[in-house]
Amino acid sequence: MKDNPVQTAAPEPSFRDSVDLMFNRAVRFMTLPPGLEQKIRVCNATYTVRFGVRLRGAIHTFTGYRSVHSEHMEPVKGGIRYAPFVDQEEVEALAALMTYKCALVEVPFGGSKGGLCLDPREWDEEELERITRRFTYELVKRDLIHPAQNVPAPDMGTSEREMAWIADQYRRMNTTDINASACVTGKPLNAGGIHGRVEATGRGLQYALREFFRHPEDVARAGLSGGLEGKRVVVQGLGNVGFHAARFLSEEDGARIVGIVERDGVLWNDDGLRVEVAREWLLRNGGLRDCPGGHFSEDGAAALEAECDILLPAALEGVIHRDNAARIRAPLIVEGANGPVTAAADAILREKGTVVIPDLYANAGGVTVSYFEWVKNLSQIRFGRLQRRAEEARHALLVSELERLSADQGLGWTLSPSFKDRYLRGDDEIELVRSGLDDTMRAAYGAMRALWHERPELGDLRTAAYVVAIGRVAASYRAKGL
Ligand code: NAD
Predict the structure, then answer these.
(1) Alpha-carbon Rg for the chain in angstroms
(2) What is the pLDDT of residue 6?
């Protein structure tokens, strides 16, 4: 494998090669003990399973994967993807990204990923449940789903629904395991989930961008100025990640979602699209054609190259590649998807001065809140249940004391009702989850940007993120005595 994809005539590196190339670029700036670099880079194991399910009067054979990249911390963690193009290379690339992502955001997991080679749109709910349960059975049998060893989550093509089936299947096979619900995250609330997991990756993207825009020198590096207000954003993929990110950025930060790219094309409006409307249309019609509120064009690829301030690819890998990278006009790319920029494109963008907020940081909100869910499941109690009312009582005491002092001293102070409302309310689970996520995203950005500024030779945020992450994985291996 060559380390400089741009100067070779070789074809575009695969997704897994891209991740390795990014890793290789980072370790060049590090001093690791001999052999450790290779130990960290390689994927520990990938299990492939082929199983049959009787459906529609015939036996259908499905192929699934669960890859474990690094067990420097356990359990290992990573989503399960349902897509027709899933293969071993892709799952291994995604598992490696999970290792680096968890290390970067200080979530105590190793990296893993799973995939099932099928198009979920071709099967109805009952069929998908049978397929999911059978796949789960195969993985549970080999401890590839287990609260202490390997904990999946949703990814492309899967959601809370599949996670609930996985959790239930695990429980049926481990009836006395008190920690059974911690075997998978991203579950619905009524099946052991946590408030804020569905929105978590999109919310994390919002926090990542807010943190970026808190640093005017970083914003200037992208040739931008000011805050998120009024920034023109193009989003690719209006699924779980893209929808939530676009919604929060437009509704809460004043960003303008000018373009939404989906499988069938792009919906565009210079004045801003209504994200909820587009999402509802997409869910009902399977595409964005004829969606009210914007102009539709089939040329989704061109929209990635359109003029805007922020490009948010949130669909799938490899969409910015060596052939279109030079034409990308957005000065800032925030990677909602995993691996949307190939290593070849990355080099071109770096050369052009495009700032890329990399996937292993930008979309880490999902695994961060999954970590909170796992902790909640193990502790068997909702966050805030013990403290909330005690906190409210303490705040009420302070407010009444202030009011008494004001009255006694004739000061005439009154606390505004909106302040009192906000101050007196104890935090419930969603507020605690968002607070933990915000803190995580800020801390990880701080670690990444410190290196970006201190070591200009690293060249970009992605390399800085890899250096931080690999350094932490290396420290963990060293501490274990490897
Ligand atoms: P999803 O299945 O909910 O949504 C994907 C969306 O992309 C769908 O709306 C789909 O129609 C659209 N899409 C598919 N192919 C497309 C194409 N060629 N052009 C335009 N749009 C296309 O998946 P998701 O969970 O939102 O995941 C999206 C990406 O984010 C993946 O790369 C995934 O690995 C990554 N990610 C997801 C999470 C999570 O918590 N779900 C966390 C981190 C990273």
Answers:
(1) 23
(2) 41
pLDDT in tens, 158-178: 999 999 999 999 999 999 999
Architecture per CATH, 46-191: 3-Layer(aba) Sandwich (3.40)
What pLDDT score does 246 carry? 98
Return the domain boundaries, the chain: 46-191, 223-353, 383-479
CA-closest residue to ligand 1 atom 30: 337
223-353 shares the fold of 46-191: yes
For residue 271, what are its two tokens?
A: 């004045």
**Which residue type sits at 177?**
D
Task: Give residue 239 CA to ligand 1 midpoint distance, Å.
Answer: 5
Residue of the CA atom closest to atom 34 of ligand 1 = 338
Mutational test site, ligand 1, from 260, 264, 279, 316, max ligand atoms within 8 Å of CB: 316
Dist CA 34 CA 20 (whole Å): 18
262 CA to middle of ligand 1, Å? 10
Catalytic residue ranges = 113
List the one residue out of 383, 395, 389 whose CA is nearest residue 436.
383
Q: Which residues have CB under 6 Å of ligand 1?
A: 154-157, 201, 236-242, 261-263, 300, 314-316, 336-338, 363, 366
310-313 vs 256-262, strand pairing mode: unpaired
DSSP string, 305-374: TS--SEEEE-S-TTSB-TTTGGG---SEEE--SSS-B-HHHHHHHHHHT-EEE-HHHHTTHHHHHHHHHH
Q: What is the pTM of this model?
A: 0.95
Which residues in the chain show pLDDT less than 70? 1-10, 482
Omega into 75 within 30° of 0, i.e. cis?
yes
Q: What is the pLDDT of residue 10?
A: 58
The whole-angstrom distance between residue 345's C-alpha and the CA centroid of its chain comes to 21
Q: How far is the CA of 306 from the centre of ligand 1 (A)?
A: 21
CATH topology of domain 223-353: Rossmann fold (3.40.50)
